[in-house]
Amino acid sequence: MKVIADLHTHTLASVHAYSSVSENAKAAFEQGLSVLGITDHAPCLPDGVHELHFMNYHVLPQGMFGVRMLYGSELNILDYEGAIDLNETLHKRMDICIASFHEFTLSPGSQKDNMGAYLGAMQNPYVDIIGHPDDGKIPVDFKVLAREAKNMDVMLEVNNSSLKVAHYRLNTRENMITMLGYCARYGTLVALGSDAHYHGAIGQFDEVLALIREIDFPEELIVNTSIEKIMKQLGKRHPHLVV
Ligand SMILES: [Zn+2]
Ligand SMILES: [Zn+2]
Fold this sequence. Notes:
Layout: E1 5-6, H1 21-30, E2 35-41, H2 51-55, E3 63-64, E4 67-76, H3 88-93, E5 96-100, H4 111-123, E6 129-131, H5 142-152, E7 155-159, H6 160-164, H7 172-186, E8 190-193, H8 206-214, H9 227-235
Parallel strand pairs: 1-2, 2-4, 4-5, 5-6, 6-7, 7-8
Antiparallel strand pairs: 3-4
Residues 74, 100, 102, 131-132 line the site of one zinc ion.
């Protein structure tokens, strides 16, 4: 299986990340990727990016170093009903929207609370991917998560940083195995993301790919394997996208 896209990366616009858009794009090219998602943190994270940043994405080129660039955001889930930050005008202009549960913007609740947050976010018409739903500190029902993601045609993320930097999210490996088992059962599409906060991590999927091989997860359920597949899926919520 060849991974041709990294759909979750950060630039120094998010203050706790350290590389520029150009550095990320060049790293993607050097890693042999065809598609790169730039998904900086939305404003509600303590060092999230101001909305003007997202408003001005149109000045950036669609292609850099031969890599198709997708400009979007990693949105914060803000309550147990699944509200997210940024307004609809901005959501509409994005190429890609990831919605993530961050403890900085929402305290983990009961499994029921957390599921409310995730299922509510999935109902947002612009959310393509649920980011890193793998942290044991934020308990969820993976069976319902994978089933409803399939029903709502939202992708679940398999986040390489969650496996690599194992100290800040809990039981990620076990949780991913459980989640992917249900994704395989229900036919839920997954998106691979490095969650790079430095260009050296762009396109680094060693941990995720080892896990996927280990459990023999079906390749057809991984969106990152072709540009057509990615554009078709993202184009459902962002119709301005063309291959
Ligand atoms: Zn995140
Ligand atoms: Zn991230």
